[in-house]
From TrEMBL:
InterPro entries, sorted: CUB_dom (IPR000859), Sperma_CUB_dom_sf (IPR035914)
Region feature (Disordered): 1-20
Chain ranges of the CUB domain: 1-65
Record's protein name: CUB domain-containing protein
Length: 65
């Protein structure tokens, strides 16, 4: 699950969206752009399983290599 996205536009989603995905799934999406460019990430639909410490479902965005 996951891939590297390049180019001016793109989309990504969890496996089996909009249905549930398998347990213990780890997805890693890498977005690569020229260093002089920036990106915008928009979530049209966002639903996470509740858990006090976010141990199960979370989204992590960071800048860097």
């Amino acid at each position: 699950c996951g891939s590297t996205l390049t180019g001016d536009e793109g989309t990504f989603s969890s496996p089996n969206y909009p249905e549930s995905y398998d347990s213990n799934l780890w997805c890693n999406w890498t977005i690569v752009v020229n260093a002089s460019m920036s990106i915008t990430v928009t979530f049209d639909n966002f639903d996470l399983e509740f858990q006090q410490d976010c141990d199960y479902d979370y989204v992590l965005l960071y800048e860097g290599s």
